[in-house]
Amino acid sequence: MRILIIEDDKDLAQLTKLALEKEKFTVDICLDGAEGLYYMQENMYDLVLLDRMLPSMDGTQVLKEARQSNISTPVIFLTALGELQDKVNGLNCGADDYMVKPFAFEELLARIHSIMRRPGKWGDLNLLKLGDIAFDPECGRLTKGAKECTLSGRESALLEVFLRNPGQVLPRNLLLSRVWGMESDVEEGNLDNYIHFLRRRLKSVESTLVLKTIRGIGYQLEVCQ
User: Fold this and answer.
1) Positions in the chain short of pLDDT 50
2) CA–CA distance from 67 to each of 74, 123, 206 (Å)?
3) How far apart, in whole angstroms, are the C-alpha atoms of residue 132 and residue 225?
């Protein structure tokens, strides 16, 4: 699960990041609102932890613009603004939860797990299914009926992105940032190699899914009728 923290208190952001990484989450940090919105628009996150009072763009505006851009990623506000009307406004502009600083990390972790358990695109931790295959992201097992194979960590991460966005054309830069990380200097040829590996994996279980190359843009996973 990949989490974005948008928080201008650098020390708090780093402490929260370290605590979440101990729980096996992957975490990115942004220190101002405009940068945070850019990260949300350019990457795929499972959850965003968002401060209200931020430089360049406040948290409510970040969330409003994200929702207007059809970004449905769950968002938890973490803020010092704890009045009832603050909470109501935060939830009404699209937040999934609201926590007032200072907070106990154990409570934050419980709320994250609660969101993960919700049914839907990002909260479903069961098998991912599309067409004739099922994929378990926890162990990297790809199955079609009695046929199965196990994917590497990188293959698993890449296939999971496609399965959570079936039929969508996913740009190369989005796939690179989602699988290798936004700060990675990985060469684009590595993406092409792993696309080749995924096609071989799908072929090995005799799946009818097709991983298409969309020239000049990226790739698309479709069910072949």
Assistant:
1) 121-125
2) 10, 18, 39
3) 11
Q: pLDDT of 84-96, one tens digit each? A: 887 888 888 888 9
- 123, two tokens: 């909260």
CB atoms within 10 A of CB 49: 25
Residue 175, token pair as written in the block: 């796939």
Q: What DSSP element (H or E) covers 149? A: strand 147-150
**What is the Cα gyration radius of the chain?**
19
**Can you tell me the distance from the alpha carbon of 32 to that of 8, in angstroms, rounded to the nearest whole number?**
6
**pLDDT tens figures, 158-185:** 998 999 888 889 999 889 888 887 667 7
pTM above 0.85, yes or no: no
Do the Cβ atoms of 160 and 127 come closer than 8 Å?
no
Answer for the pair 194, 158: CB distance below 8 angstroms, yes or no.
yes
Interatomic CA distance for residues 182 and 178, integer angstroms: 7
Residue 40 host element (H or E): helix 33-42
DSSP 209: E
Is 219:171 a contact under the CB 8 Å cutoff? no
